[in-house]
Amino acid sequence: MKEWETITLNKEYVSHYVYKIELNRPDSLNALNTKMAMELIECLTELKEKKDLRVLVLTAAGDKSFCVGADLKERKGMTNEQWKHQHDVFENAYSLIREFPLPVIAAVNGFALGGGMEMALSCDLRYIAEHAKMGLPEVTIGIIPGVGGTQLLPRTIPVGLAKEFLFRGSHISSEKAEESGLVNGVYSKEELIPKVLDIAKDIAKNAPLSLKAIKKSVNTGLQTDIHTALAIELDQYYTCANSEDRKEGILSFNEKRKPNWQGK
């Protein structure tokens, strides 16, 4: 795969079926500009087709910032039309994260503000460094979250708490983030990436078709009524039950060995 200017793709863990994307604009606190969004789109589109990928980790260079949202220096002086065009690119990038077929884990290594917090919310799991802070401060500059914040946050934590975070626009400590259920765990800045990669490797041991089916069942089912949701689950269940990997799973269990998943 190619190399990019604003993101880094790390395949060091490919033997464990784990890939890691790092946002790589540390001098700008990893603020999201148009180029980064376009490179994320290109990278995620290619990764969707990788047969040796089961879990994707999303983090950032340095230990100051995960992503502080849109690069306001780039947005300075934009016309409404230019702003809309850029936001369309951002929406496409975030949609690819949310709809990535396999688990995506955010390792929040510093500030995750505005679009940065929305990027973390777009992932399936979130782990945060002790010193890091999250927040959706859009209300303080006259706008609102525009890439999922008002919808993803109340689907992750209690609605009243989500509204408080949105209305106040203040920073959320790692302790508060964990307490509210916003993140799955908190680690020191030294432990964060190793711990997240251990979790990713543990998940990646499992059948890729099952991982895809679980993600699709949960994400799609949450948007509908319980009867429809159960039908979605059943459809995904039979997709797995009728697969070669299901046969391999039963066989490997009885032969007391690790399964050799084929993803089919």
UniProtKB/TrEMBL annotation:
Signal peptide: none annotated. GO terms for molecular function: hydro-lyase activity. Transmembrane segments: none annotated. GO terms for biological process: fatty acid beta-oxidation. Keywords: Lyase. PROSITE patterns: ENOYL_COA_HYDRATASE. It comes from the Bacteria. The keyword Lyase applies. Belongs to the enoyl-CoA hydratase/isomerase family. This is Enoyl-CoA hydratase. It comes from Jeotgalibacillus soli.
